[in-house]
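We emphasize that the prediction below concerns an isolated chain of 353 residues; any contacts that depend on oligomerization or on bound cofactors are therefore not represented. The input was used exactly as deposited, without trimming of termini.
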Amino acid sequence: MCKNSSRRIPNIVHVDVDAFFASVEQVLNPRLLGKPVLVGRGVVASASYEAKFRGVRTAMSFREALRICPKAVVVPGQYEHYADFAERVRRILETYTPAVETAALDDFYLDFAGTERLYPDYQGTLRRLQAEIFGRTGLNVSIGAARTKVVASIASRLERPRGFRVIAYGEEEAFLTQLPVEKLHGIGHVHTGVLAERGIVTIGQLRQVPKPALQAAFGEAIGQQIWERARGLDGREVLLPSTPKSVSRETTIEGGTIDTEFLGGLIEYLSERIGSTLREYGKQARTIGLRIRYVDQFLAHQTVRISKPTNDERELLVTAKDLFGRLFTRRVAVRLVGVSVTNLETDKRQHEL
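Result of the prediction step, given as a token string:
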């Protein structure tokens, strides 16, 4: 029994690009290497670790960021380059396992199940993957491995930049117990604040709260999710790439923001990623949707039919920004924005070339 368990690898791997937008800017302009870099317009969309070490955070206003880091270099953002670098990282990941799922803004999930013979030195393989991404793109990534997505994502984010943490089977509870509640991915500041008011500040303390009490406080679905994630439980599998029937990309904003320029920049990046994916699969979309979730969990979503099918990110962006103008009607910070396309059809122009 011990022999079998020792060979059972924590097969779910989370790969997170460190300070993504700012790091791409440093790669594109080597004169920025080692300098604090801020990307964005009204607020900080991304900050290099040189800036983060001085206290700058994503979604912070530039006025505040430059007050605490006056020597920071500000760049407006080149979202088409960020989308290109994200695809380059994904292609490297797919040389290690076909089970690669694009998760959000700058991260990916991989499933290494069944690769034990191919990669007998599992941790060595993950270290090699980390080094190869840096060698071929200039980007540092942090890696976490565990048996579920939720634990792997927490592990990858603990020691950034260039973090590396593997949580062996059976060690999940011990790993999570002493961590603060805010480390649970998907639990926002509002929920964290409510729990803190009740003296619940660690995941171990959260685990002691009965499921019915969490559901009474946060609603049935969110209460169930919090209860499961506090135990490292997560039934989500890594989605295998296949010819898509729809494509979606989304990201969360730590703390939320009401800055429309910042949110518009994220929508531009997500549209770039979707356009690239559609072209890769030789598809065009007839329908596009946008959804935003506010920090108070209110969700707004709308889809519209595009006048003609397209995989051009510029055309997708125009419609996505129009949807955003319709949906962003509350003076409440937004913590999630997502773009999706459906009703896909073959791009006939590819066959005409």
